[in-house]
Specification:
The protein has 247 residues and is an all-alpha fold. It has 11 helices and 2 strands, in the order ααααααααββααα. The chain folds into 3 domains: 36 residues; 74 residues, Cytochrome c-like domain (Cytochrome Bc1 Complex, Chain D, domain 2, Orthogonal Bundle), CATH 1.10.760.10; 85 residues, Cytochrome Bc1 Complex, Chain D, domain 2.
């Protein structure tokens, strides 16, 4: 400011203000971000605020929601990271949504619940795996509900299996071990850890398929492909009959 009183020039004053803005604003933003990152995450407060109403302060459930005992870190991480929990209201359907907490908050909340109710499967570490073997396991154990291409679909009653398009490998492995919703639990005896790794690798291939044969037809399987083939055959036969009648 003393320099501005010496150099009484509008151009010099403008350059000074621009310099202060360019240098000062990022510095203040950096200090604010550092202050936020230094603030510890109060997982207990988050749980009591967003989860305890249904699951109880001790995570053993209430008449509004089930106990979290036996879910382990894997079950809690799956529900929270896929946005299925916490519900905003009792009438909301438990469906996949964007996660409502950042990754650091989810990790802290999962660790807190795991301390409240020890036991259950831990968050799996995925490594290795064989895609071909994973495809065989998927067709045997998963395709009946999640559809051959992982698009999901209707089940008996009013249930519907979700699409696997947005699932991460860790979330797929967590679902296998915890059986969320109506999905059965597949323990290590049913699907060993090595097969889980192969299965998750195959699901990642389904999420980004190479449709070398032409139009994917929404990956709905042989039914629409057969319908298109029949329609094309009918057009060919009709065209041949029309040509024959003219000759």
């Amino acid at each position: 400011m003393r320099w501005l009183t010496i150099v009484r020039s509008p151009l010099a004053s403008g350059l000074f203000v621009i310099t202060v803005v360019i240098v000062g604003v990022p510095l203040l933003a950096h200090r604010a971000a550092a202050s936020r990152s230094a603030t510890p995450i109060d997982a207990q407060q988050i749980y009591l605020q967003d989860c305890a109403t249904c699951h109880g302060a001790d995570a053993h459930g209430t008449r509004y929601g089930p106990t979290l005992e036996g879910q382990g870190a894997a079950g809690v991480d799956f529900m929270v990271s896929t946005g299925r929990m916490p519900l905003r209201s009792a009438d909301e359907q438990m469906e996949r949504h964007p996660a409502r907490y950042p990754a650091e908050t989810i990790a802290a909340l999962v660790a807190y619940v795991a301390r409240l109710v020890p036991g259950g499967p831990s968050v799996p570490a995925i490594a290795g795996g064989d895609v071909a073997q994973g495809g065989s396991i998927y067709r045997q154990q998963c395709a009946a509900c999640h559809q051959a291409a992982g698009e999901g679909g209707a089940l008996l009653g009013q249930d519907e299996s979700p699409s696997l398009a947005a699932s991460t490998p860790v979330q797929v492995a967590e679902a296998i071990r915890t059986g969320p919703g109506t999905m059965p639990v597949f323990g290590p005896q049913a699907i060993p850890d090595g097969d889980v790794a192969s299965l998750t690798r195959y699901v990642t291939v389904l999420q980004d398929p190479v449709d070398a044969g032409g139009q994917p037809l929404w990956h709905l399987g042989p039914m629409p492909e057969g319908a298109v083939a029949i329609a094309a055959l009918a057009l060919i036969i009709g065209g041949l009959r029309w040509i024959g009648s003219r000759t």
